[in-house]
Design goal:
alpha/beta; seven-stranded mixed sheet; 14 strands
């Protein structure tokens, strides 16, 4: 199984528009963070996790030419507003693309993108729309995406819920503020953990700080943990030096084998 980090930044991205801080002006490419996105590849299956606004550019940079299915963690703009870019796949290949989304967010997406999910949605002759099958799921209900079996898990995200998942030895915790005890049990034994971590020092109402992410990782005991969803208050090289040896910051374009 192969994991590619398409984007490792928060909703602002890095550099932040109009900011001249040391991270935003850094020449280290690892400090350039587009909005969150992942690709999980297993045999002939390519699972895209989230569709951020930079999706087209991310897919081109990572040389991803095919997608088998999509998993959306939640409906905040930085995680779904690049979804129209999926049109490149469905216009070329023909088959409709399955898009997994928590049932509580199904109507939100249908209302937000009525031109391809609304009543009577149909491409105007000579044009195209994304041909997507929205597949709602319930928390902890196992999903089959090609060769990948996913266990979706809900995590508190301020007043909302964001959904990560476990597949085999990999766990992805996206936009979480905490991991409930029963969810910790489901994640026991994972070897690779991907977890959001904003910054050092101060708490945030809907995301883990770096200290909180480290605590979750240490309790799970994963062999390797990768931090993502980081702000411009985090410099990659400095963070790499400060973290425990089995935890490291991800960066856009990082590819790992699970």
């Amino acid at each position: 199984m192969r994991l590619t980090f398409l984007g490792t930044g928060t909703s602002f991205g890095v550099p932040v528009v109009g900011c001249s801080c040391p991270v935003c002006t850094s020449t280290d490419p690892r400090n350039r963070r587009s909005r969150h996105g992942l690709v999980v590849e297993d045999g002939d299956t390519t699972l895209l996790v989230d569709t951020p606004p930079e999706l087209r550019l991310q897919l081109l940079e990572a040389d991803i030419t095919d997608v088998s299915a999509v998993f959306l963690s939640h409906t905040h703009a930085d995680h779904v507003h690049g979804i129209d870019d999926l049109r490149a796949f469905t216009a070329r290949s023909g088959p409709r693309l399955p898009v997994f989304l928590a049932a509580e967010y199904e109507q939100v997406m249908r209302d937000r993108f009525p031109y391809f999910w609304g009543p009577g949605a149909e491409a105007v002759p000579g044009s195209s729309i994304p041909e997507l099958d929205l597949i709602p799921f319930e928390d902890r209900a196992v999903l089959q995406a090609g060769t990948l079996e996913l266990m979706p898990i809900a995590f508190p995200h301020g007043p909302f819920q964001s959904y990560g998942f476990r597949t085999g030895d990999l766990a992805v915790v996206v936009d979480a503020k905490s991991v409930p005890d029963d969810a910790m049990e489901l994640l026991e034994g994972v070897r690779v953990l991907v977890i959001n971590a904003l910054w050092w020092g101060r708490p945030h109402p809907s995301h883990f700080s770096i200290e909180e992410a480290i605590d979750v990782a240490s309790r799970l005991g994963a062999d390797r943990t990768y931090l993502t969803h980081m702000t411009h208050r985090v410099e990659h090289g400095e963070l790499l030096e400060r973290l425990p040896p089995n935890i490291e910051p991800a960066y856009d374009g990082l590819v790992i084998e699970v």
